[in-house]
Amino acid sequence: MNYLNNLTEGIGNTPLLKLNSVNKGIKGTILVKVEYFNPGNSIKDRIALKMIEDAEEKGILKPGGTIIEGTSGNTGMGLALVAISKGYKCIFTLADKQSKEKMDILRAVGAEVIVCPTNVTPEDPKSYYSVARQLEKDIPNSFYPNQYDHPANAESHYETTGPEIWRDTDGKITHYAAGMGTGGTISGTSKYLKEQNPDVVTIGLDSYGSVFKKYKETGIFDEKEVYPYLTEGIGEDILPKNVDFDMVDHILKVTDKDAAIMTRRLAREEGLFIGWSCGSAVFGALEFAKGNLKEDDVMVIILPDHGTRYLGKVYNDDWMKDHGFLEERKFATAKDIIQHRNGSSELVTINQKLKVGEAIKTMNQKGIDQAPIVDGSNFVGSISDSRILSSLIENPELKDKPVADVMDKSFQFVSPHETIDVMSSMLNRETKALLVRDQANDVHIITQSDLLVAMTN
Ligand code: PMP
Fold first, then answer.
1. How far is the first Cα of the chain from the last one, in angstroms, to the nearest whole number?
2. Atom of ligand 1 nearest to the CA of 275
3. H/E element, 245
4. Per-domain residue ranges of the chain
5. Could you give the 3-state DSSP secondary structure of residue 68?
């Protein structure tokens, strides 16, 4: 008889599939590794099994214990399946931007789910990281794997994902691409592949609004790069220990919209009903492939999960329309606005030590109503005419104080690909302007009047 004793035996050995349609015109063989073939329908089953076995070996997890994890859903599913086969309880914390489907699925397999706010810093006691950490302290005989920093995460890919790809491509792989969340997939797999052949080129896919790309290229962890985005599973506002930047040769950022559209194309053109970050991985990897792959090259792209978890989002036409992702009408982007702006495009910044009175003079001379405040090359705050006026009315002596004393929080950074419709929804009474960093690392400002000019041109 041929059967599995429990679902954990079904983890791994997922197939490679050749892309035939979305890669038309691009040289090389493009293969995707379809991780929804895992029993929990995602790549995260691999790390779940390894982290639990590691905890059992070390005596951290004892019979009847509780597993607690902060998860975007997939790790939770993997942990829940392994927990069922081994008799543990599960409590998961999720950020509220995650699909409702993911929460329902976790509850369906018997886990307790705690939903936490997305738009708080990781250190905030309400964040899904902090809540998980606190639960571990409060609940006896509990284990908090912390997939971000647990070495078993990357190790599981070093031991399984990497060898499977090497075996199934007969050692012919030349390029490897994967999305970056905890970093475990890209770091562990790349380490194995580079040990077999140091010439294998590895490409990590990141989101706009995440810190990875800038950190890789400049060594700077820039909090101002962090802003809300929609894609689930990739991009971070922290540097998880599982990211080994030495194992990632190139990082490309992919917009929510490009990822969503590619996800739907993969379903319709290739029959791959896969998750949103799969669209990010394929879109970014193909962008890289366009200029770099030769006919004999073999690229493998990881597709982390299944489409069921995104039925209410990328596979829902109304949702796509609400987000401007299915718009027939092409909206101008931040990049278009910057390129077509009349007059000087020099960004006027004000040093945080400058006196308020001097700052007003500078803004007057330059004819601007608001400006970013800087400390060296860091954007630390912002000021606007109306805000200074109300501060001065309350306390006229403020004019001799440094602007740092009256400034508001820094303007938000957006991607050069962000469209006018999205940017206009971000500007309001409190947020007077947005900042954009271009490929040359120059920063530009976009105000409401820029959007009005672009709409009426
Ligand atoms: N895509 C999805 C849907 C995920 O859940 C994750 C895990 N956060 C990733 C991609 C990224 O994988 P990793 O955490 O190994 O970097």
1. 71
2. 3
3. none
4. 7-42+151-322, 45-143, 334-455
5. strand
45-143: CATH topology is Rossmann fold (3.40.50)
> How many of the other CB atoms lie within 10 Å of CB of 294?
8
Is any ligand 1 atom within 6 A of the Cβ of residue 78? no
| pTM value > 0.85 | no
44 is catalytic: yes
What does DSSP assign to residue 160? I
Q: Report pLDDT digits (tens) over 333-371.
A: 999 999 887 666 679 999 999 999 999 999 999 889 899
Topology of the domain comprising 334-455: CBS-domain (3.10.580)
Q: Is the CB of 184 under 6 A from ligand 1?
A: yes
List pLDDT tens digits, range 82-108: 999 999 999 999 989 887 878 898 999
Residue showing tokens 């140091």:
198
Contacts of 412 (CB under 8 A, 6+ apart): 227, 426, 431, 434, 435
Q: How far is the C-alpha of 234 from the C-alpha of 206, rounded, in Å?
A: 6
The CATH classification number of 7-42+151-322 equals 3.40.50.1100
